[in-house]
What we know:
The protein is built from 30 helices and 16 strands. The chain is an alpha/beta fold. Helix 12 (300-313) runs antiparallel to helix 16 (360-372). It is globular and about 80 Å long.
Amino acid sequence: MAIMTTLRFVVVLLLLSPTSWAFAPIYSNKVSPRPPPTTTTLLKAATSLVWLTGHEDLRLQNHGGFHNALSEEENDDDKNPTTTIQPIFVLDPQIHLRCKSKATLTRLHQCLCSLEQDILASITTGAEEESSSTKKRMAPLIVKTGCASDILPKLAKEFKATSCHVIADDVVTDVRQSQRLTCQSLSNMGVKVQRWTNALRPSITTVPSFYPDYCQLLRSHDLTNFQKEKNAVKKDTVTTTTTNGGGSTTTTVVPSLQEFIELSQSATPTPVHEFRSSSRADTNTAEPFEEMVTRQFTSSDAAKSALEEYCSIGKDAFANQYYISPTTSGKRSSSSMYAASIARLMNDGNKASDVLALREVPTRTFTSAINMGSINTREILNAAHKKQTNGNSLLPTPEPPLWGRSSEGSLADVVEWREWFRLLANRSLRLQEEEKAGTSGGEKNQSGDPREPGTVHYWRWKDQYLVRYLTWPAGIDYDDSAQNASPAMLLVHGFAASAEQWERLVYRVRQEHTVGGKDCTPPIFAIDLLGFGHSEKPGLSYTQYLWEAQLVDFAVDVMEAQPMIMVGNSIGGGLSAGAAASLGSKICQGLVLCNTAGVLEDPDTYEGYTSTPDNNSNIRSFTEAALAGNPNEAPYSPIPLVGNNALDAFGTAIVKLIYPQIEQRLSIIYGHRMENADPAVVYAIQQSAMSPGSANVIGSGQKLAANRPLNEVLEGLNVLVVMGLDDRVSSPAVAQSRAVLFQKLQKYNENIVVEAIPDSGHCPHDETPELVANAMTRWLSTATMNSAADALTTTTKTAEKEQVSYK
């Protein structure tokens, strides 16, 4: 027995040489030498599969799947003396690669490489400490490319698997569907499928839809439920070289980063690839600090090290040490407008601790690692509670603290807020699957004009932040190749509203597109902007360029750069205009602005961006200025002494002031059709306002950079301006004057059409939806005919502009 043990130990050491642990460097475009494959012989032993989905499960420690596999009852059958635990990652092109950015691919690659190293290290440790009584054997990670519902059943059959451990269903549509289909296929084969969860409080299975009620529910759940985490991999775990009947072998090496990128390009539709390959700087949607976070905080060891350092030195010191330059390349002119808008906050010697939101540093540091699964939310929350010394509870409360937020409180909020929005999303999807209303408004009484409820979906923006969107299917007779077919639609709500506010307009749009019994309605999408509706409200600094980047990414990642029109109300109109300018008329073939926000200068006196001898004369447009962080504008100045604490306090005060007045204010806004301001509309706004993070969203308004004027961003676009003249938000006088300015703009942009509606207000799409839908139908018949010619003209102008402005 001792001789056999020694031989197996030597074999494992030879197979698991550290020389096989070389991986591609971050952001490298070169293909690193492939390490020799680690080969595992698959014996006729019982096998427990641990399926790693790439969402919250790419780690070895504190992993429910590995823990449960190791805890399964020992197999006493002499013919199967051991149980092999086989970790498997299926690289699904549709889920992990299609339309993904390089930053997302890099983070996934990093986490997989880190996990593989940890597994190999645990195998080596286990081999050194092997004992004859050990019956659990960890095998090296297997990576396969393809569809999980095809690959997992085949592997289960090959390995004679008795069980498969997989994380609970995600809320993102494609991941959720893949998990369910694969698990059902395995169950049909007789494989025991065991689900596990990262939930902070697994005992909470049903949640209310209102955050204050959820906070009350938490008071009855003991925090020790998540504080007693077990180490997933024990030191007596071992592996050995095994062989199956056919003597087949399999490699466990993670593909290189370059291979990830090439596979992604193959899986991504051509229109998306073309857009992403553009040399125009305004198409870039990179996050602030993106490369630094990817490089320093993503892998398991890096995330744990960052957590330890954050808790040791505190939020402010951590912020000032790492969050220095939010640009992606070191050249301000080639950064995204989103990244540049945060760079602007840090100009003039401002420190990150003085200008970033109270929870921004832990949010940006850990969110990517949490979503990939290289660190556990419970581990983060435990660290926050361990750091807490003043005796105050870190449990979520309906109201934020009166002043500021401690380092540990900010850290706890990151995971607690995230947990709430995940639970809310799961609640909506479960209700929808039970054929009940999945939206907030659907839970309340509805009156007024008819609605067409949308189907609820979730998307994770930047693979980090949960975003809700609704869809309505194309009509049965819709043909997108028909000459006069309407393009798809993307609907963008205004401040404090949500995607649900478009249901009445969609109903009327379908009526308009149903002629002679044929329904030719195009596919329709409506999105919740980050910070509103059921989308997350992470503790970031919100700027117009964050939201524009979100809209651009949604059009490219979710709608896959298909031709469409954008319809926006209030601030959603201004954001849609900016996003449309970045997308270009080849993708955004039309724009509908309903009582839009945004700077509109008198077209007769508008001179464009001007510079003086004292300014940076190389900047020739407001877009170029935004890309450079608006260097010719006055630098951002935090409020002396109190800084960001005051912004959150201001936001809290606004929520407290407005919340009791929501119903009354809506009855004024919907003055010509008050029945449309029904309990459904009221509750959707109330629910969003009381969700955690609302105060920060409002307080961030003090950080906004100068807007690019509509005069510039609407150039070359087909635009329908719908103006409810009795606007009781901005005032009827302002609405009338803006309608006149848009009519003047027609002299300089012949593709602008103005539709004034006297008996409608700030939300004409929901107050008088039949009038807006009819105006859209009349306009679309002209706008779509011009779109091809406009796209060609815009492409030519863009190419010329790139040569002058971006080189």
